[in-house]
Design a protein that fits this description.
Helices cover 23% and strands 21% of the residues. With 309 residues, the protein is of the alpha/beta class. A nine-stranded mixed β-sheet has the order 1-17-15-9-11-13-14-4-16, sandwiched between helices. A two-stranded antiparallel ribbon has the order 2-3. The longest helix is centred in the first third of the chain and has 11 residues.
Amino acid sequence: MPLPREFHDIAKRVNNWGRWGTDDEIGTLNLITDEVVRKAAAGTTRTGRRIPLALPLRQDGVQTGMIPGRINPLHTMTAINQEIFGPDTVATSDDMVTMGLQAATHWDGLAHVSHSGRLYNNRAADSITAHGGATVLGIEKATPIASRGVLLDVARVHGTDRLPGGHAVTPEDLDAAEELAGTTVRAGDIVLVRTGQLRHYLAGDRRAYAFPSPGLSLRTPEWFHARDVAAVANDTLTFEIFPPEIENLWLPVHALHLVEMGMPQGQNWNLEELSRACAEAGRWAFFLVAVAEPFVGGSGAPVAPVAIL
């Protein structure tokens, strides 16, 4: 089914192709300038409290098989107390992991989604190959992602621990959460949107976490585009509302963010402790360090983000 006119109309309004040059491969991460980072570091950190936002990498992680090939981490020991230099010498243990790069807490890179045969900045989708992966727009191109983070706690705005599965987060929700935060989202910020959906997984129910899920609506990309947001992440498996708002229109927000805007998006971020800490402090902005693992040719990568209040 072709993408509907509504999608293409929004795409034209948020498109960033050529904005940073025809060779650009990092999209809205261009908005995280040295000056943005300097102001963020100087203006947000007060207590030094560090809050981890990543899920543990474990074999019974968030993946249920709904997304083919995206397996939870398989951890294997390759050496156990091995005296590699001879008897009675120092012994070492080593291990390895096989996993989907987007299995747990991660960033979706700009090569993760295409539509109409194109990737961000009018790159050809067939530039992704079996052997080379993302030959352009690979996740290794992402600049070190560190900037001011702003938590938009939509669940808290609605007076609940967790939004219902059918809740499409709207621009009005984001406005209300921004008002609660007492700050204005500005150019170069990284926005974290809390729905509370991760509470299903933290309670041991992976399937309820996966489906149905609240998430960002088709109307929200224009909200982020208008504010020149650098990246967005949330606490769901699918990022956008799932099943979709419009029947048979699958992952339109992914396509608008990654293809049209060149804006990375993150999923499976644990925002529960951060929500409590922000509420206690009465501050919803912080310094955020969220550097993607630089897998060459990757369409996404694990990340272990840390919010510093």
